[in-house]
Each structure stands twice: as C-alpha cells, then as structure tokens.
Amino acid sequence: MSKTPGKKLEIRIDNAKxxxxxxxxxxxxxxxxxxxxxxxxxxxxxxxSMEAEGWNIRWLNSYPDEPAQGIISVKLNFxxxxxxxxxxxxxxxxxxxxxxxxxxxxxELEKVDLIxxxxxxxxxxxxxxxxxxxxxxxxxxxxxxxxKYAEMDVAIxxxxxxxxxxxxxxx
Length: 171
Fold this sequence. Notes:
By secondary structure, this protein is mainly β. The protein has helices at residues 44-53, 144-149, 165-169; strands at 10-13, 17-22, 37-42, 57-60, 69-75, 84-89, 92-96, 109-123, 126-140.
C-alpha cells in the first residue's frame, strides 16, 4: 500500500456506537498497560468500504443467524498530534486531556461524534490503516437530579459527622 499524495486519511462518524472502552490505558487480558483505545461499531456498508480501502476492520459474529458486525479499534495518542476530545454535560463543554480522558471509561453517553485519522503502516509485507482519534465530542446523559440541582452554586463537602462510604459498607 502506498500513500496517495494529497489523500486525507480521515473519516467522520456521527452518532457513533462505541464499546470496549479503555481511555485510561489500563492493563487487561487483551490490552498492554498504557494502550488507550476503544472500538466503534460500524454499519455494514461503511465497514466494507473502509476494509476495501485498507482500514483494520474486525468482524464480530454474535449470533449465527445474524450478519457479522464490523468494528474498528481506535487508538488515542497524546504525542505529536493529541486528539481534540470534548465532553459535553448539560450544554457545558470541557476539553479532556491525557489526565482526564479516563472519565469516559464509565460515562453514560447519549451521543458520540468522531473524526478518525488513519495511519498507513507496512511491516514485514503486511499493511493496513490504523485508526487514531483526531476529534471526539462525547455528550453525557444528564440525570433528572443533576438537572434539578445544576443551577445551584453549592460546593459538595463532607460533614465531619457524616459517615464515609467505607463506614457505610461495614453495616
């Protein structure tokens, strides 16, 4: 695979469905420590088109009577070209960096819009396009109590007489 001059290796995915989140880069059974990544579920036509272009698409077979689901693994790299990651909660935008992006690991997300940047690789005769996050907008689900109290400018403090969570666990 050779790089086409002027060809931009980017793809925009609106309302993306993401899974297998590891924004923290935690070590796991299938992940070495420090490897920040997540997967995006792709519509079949998009997955086939990207696969034909050389993107690293995997296919999951969950049920024998259903077609395989195309997914792409997306890496986060905060080196030379750090991603632009925006968390939106109740209309307020916060830029996340490598120290705060792990909040997305367990966040309840309403909507995700992404731009992926492709990196062409060629090693030992094998080649493909690896996906990196360029831009991501992550909209949080805001529960009804959070909405109710959002307008109050109150700092949450721990009362000295109030048991901590660990003290509650003793009961």
